[in-house]
Amino acid sequence: MHADANGTGSPPEAADDFAGVPDAFQRLWTPHRMVYIDDEDRTGERSGCPFCRAPGLDDATGLIVARGVHAYVLLNLYPYNSGHLLVCPYRHVASYDEATAEEAAEIASLTQSAMRVLRETSRCDGFNIGMNQGAVAGAGIAGHLHQHIVPRWAQDANFFPIVARTKAVPRLLGEVRDELAAAWPTAE
């Protein structure tokens, strides 16, 4: 289903309805993702970068779970699953190869800690971990390096929001942040 001009749902369009050479694919429109395409934060400008702003906020307001020396961990404001975390360097760099050795090492260490904490608190069965490098690769905020850590369960809804325009996130972000921060190891 996708939203038409009136905001109502309509079925996916058949490939045969498009100009050009028909193929076997159905098209699934996801207009809710336009917030990432149209958002000024995608330009990489520091003034609009939420990953540059977050460390200046208190942890609860910034959804920050843990702070390191070179990088920090926060909850994704638009999670795929409950507990979807991001690991970001404090420094505004766009690409993994621009990170210093210290930043890369701390991103790795924080990612390992995040996995342990998520297993302990949410009893997840696995993870999707990755970085989308550049807008063309799907980075919602291409100007500031960030790694996704998405907890997964055997029976989760995966990308249900794309299909039914509904997010099944069972807990409030603040509640999840508080739980993860309390379970975070004190020494990295």
TrEMBL record:
GO molecular function, one term: nucleotidyltransferase activity
UniProt keyword terms in alphabetical order: Nucleotide-binding, Nucleotidyltransferase, Transferase
Keyword Ribosomal protein in record: no
Stretch forming the signal peptide: none
UniProt-annotated catalytic positions: H146 (tele-amp-histidine intermediate)
Locus of motif Histidine triad motif: 144-148
Superkingdom of the source species: Bacteria
Binding locations of substrate: N76, H148
Pfam families noted in UniProt: HIT
Span of domain HIT: 50-159
Record protein name field: ATP adenylyltransferase
